[in-house]
Amino acid sequence: MRGRRYCGTVTLAERGERVLLAGWVNHRRDHGGLTFIDLRDHTGVVQLVFNPAKFPAAQEIAERSRLEWVLRVEGVVEPRPEGSANPNLPTGEVEVAVEECEVLAQAEAMPIGTADEAEADERIRLQYRYLDLRRPRMQRNLRARHRFIKSLRDEADRLDFTEIETPTMIPSTPEGARDFVVPSRMWPGHVWALPQSPQLYKQLSMVAGFDRYFQIARCWRDEDLRSDRQFEFTQLDLEMSFVDEEEIYEVLEKMISIAWEAAFAQAVPIPWPRIPFREAMARFGSDKPDTRFGHELGDVSEIFRKSTFRVFAGALEAGGTVRALRVREEPTSPGGTWRGSGCRWPAPTAPRGLPTCGVERDSTRARSPSSSLRTNWPL
């Protein structure tokens, strides 16, 4: 559609200009004989105003239009009346007085809403995935992924990497999980395997002397689903020749930092902070901590040195330590409550097997799992 303007880009700079727009009906309302429609495309929304006294044919279409109908309109950009501007929208200072309107596609009643705040069961969202993908959040996610991958490729090229696409159907090779297999029509009883990683072929490329290889690789693993695992995923796969550990850190930090800023407009300083394994386990209890969490583990071994609680006593006698996660805030989840003068962990979020210790509000005295011990707690 030649000459089309994007809905989210119309501003006061185009005041008095005639524009051609196309998009989906995001919202429709009638006020005092005028019909208003918020027209949406991938860049945002712009307000259309239909005046039946001036353009009755366009008004007739506006009255029939329903949510998610697709319209093509032509009109003049005008400033909104005083007091009706919307500061929350890039187009909030203008509206388009429609002179011509054409229905490009009609839509039945929507089974799910397309706004971010619209609630819908996940099964329904997947059934009507094309509607779910119209949500602004989903659009932002996919466009952020595009910018991230594009930046990875651009930076890899600047660092003299060669992108090599490896085969998808390969002979089965031993890896960390089970293969997905594809039966062969030409060789009955034989199968191809979908790659868990491009391991063999990237090694072949390195032995062939390509020096720096990379690929945005699609991988498949037939394993149990987890919060951070699924059957099919994409990974940045790369190899380098004649490098040491520091060079690998330098390349990856640069590539990821640049891609992250391109995708999310957030700068990531280089070099990245590094935490030794023992320190990470001592402070966070994990070798891959999310340091934004803020709640670090504290060593409370001395407090419980004389405790009769067998779990703690046994750990200390064996040369171990007792560490605690200190939560200063009052619980805010539905299951969190204050009982008496002590704090109790919110029941729905308490990890299984994790002892809790109540802290009295009016003192620095703590009540341990063993009721016979009362001691000072460093607040």
Distance between the termini: 66 Å
Main beta-sheet annotation: 5 strands, mixed, barrel
Looking at the structure, the CATH topology of the largest domain is BirA Bifunctional Protein, domain 2
Strand order of the largest sheet: 1-2-3-5-4
Q: Tell me the number of strands.
A: 17
Order of helices and strands: EEEHEEHHHEEEHEEHHEHEEEEEE
| Average pLDDT score | 86
Strand content: 25-35%
Description:
By secondary structure, the chain is an alpha+beta fold. It has 3 domains: 7-105, OB fold (Dihydrolipoamide Acetyltransferase, E2P) (Beta Barrel), CATH 2.40.50.140; 139-264, Bira Bifunctional Protein, Domain 2 (BirA Bifunctional Protein, domain 2, 2-Layer Sandwich); 297-376, no CATH class. Helices cover 23% and strands 25% of the residues. The protein is built from 8 helices and 17 strands. It has helices at 56-64, 122-127, 129-132, 136-158, 199-207, 245-264, 277-284, 310-317, and strands at 18-31, 34-41, 44-50, 70-79, 94-105, 162-163, 181-183, 191-193, 212-220, 232-240, 297-299, 323-325, 338-339, 342-343, 358-359, 365-367, 374-376. The chain has a 5-stranded mixed barrel with strand order 1-2-3-5-4. Strand 15 (358-359) and strand 16 (365-367) form a beta hairpin. Helix 4 (136-158) packs antiparallel against helix 6. The N and C termini lie far apart (66 Å).
